[in-house]
């Protein structure tokens, strides 16, 4: 049975968004965007994917220079 996905508080999203500068650490694309049909921005990321638990070769290459957190599951700077 798969582990249930954790629902993070908006403050936790803010911590991680600030930590990454609002850009994907792999491709530098913005992590939030505004749909033409909406007044509010949309989240274009999942917290679990900000830093991969087991990066593949391509991800490891893209993450060169970005140190993995001491606790991979922790939020924010640890």
Describe this structure in words.
By secondary structure, the protein is α+β, with helices and mostly antiparallel strands. It has a domain at 23-67. The chain is built from two helices and two strands; from the N terminus they run H-E-E-H. It has helices at residues 10-20, 57-62; strands at residues 32-34, 41-43. A two-stranded antiparallel ribbon has the order 1-2. The longest helix has 11 residues, at 10-20. The chain is globular, with a radius of gyration of 14 Å.
Produce a short descriptive summary.
By secondary structure, this protein is α+β, with helices and mostly antiparallel strands.
Q: What is the string of SSEs from the N terminus onward?
A: HEEH
Widest β-sheet, arrangement of strands: 1-2
Percent of sequence in beta strands: 5-15%
What fraction, in percent, of the residue positions are helical? 10-25%
Structural class: alpha+beta
The low-pLDDT segments are none
| Sheet with the most strands, sense and barrel status | 2 strands, antiparallel
Helix count, per DSSP? 2
Mean pLDDT over all positions: 79
Taking the alpha carbons of the first and last residues, their distance comes to 30 Å
- What is the β-strand count? 2
Rg over CA atoms, rounded to whole Å, is: 14 Å
Which word captures the global form? Answer: globular
List keywords for this structure.
single chain; 78 residues; alpha+beta; two-stranded antiparallel sheet; 2 helices; 2 strands; 8% strand; globular
List the helices and strands and how they pair.
Elements (H helix, E strand, L loop, with lengths): L9 H11 L11 E3 L6 E3 L13 H6 L16
Antiparallel strand pairs: 1-2
């Amino acid at each position: 049975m798969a582990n249930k996905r954790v629902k993070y508080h908006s403050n936790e999203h803010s911590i991680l968004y600030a930590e990454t500068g609002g850009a994907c650490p792999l491709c530098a694309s913005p992590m939030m965007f505004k749909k033409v049909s909406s007044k509010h921005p949309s989240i274009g990321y999942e917290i679990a994917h900000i830093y991969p638990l087991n990066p593949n070769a391509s991800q490891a290459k893209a993450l060169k220079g970005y140190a993995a957190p001491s606790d991979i599951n922790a939020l924010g700077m640890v």
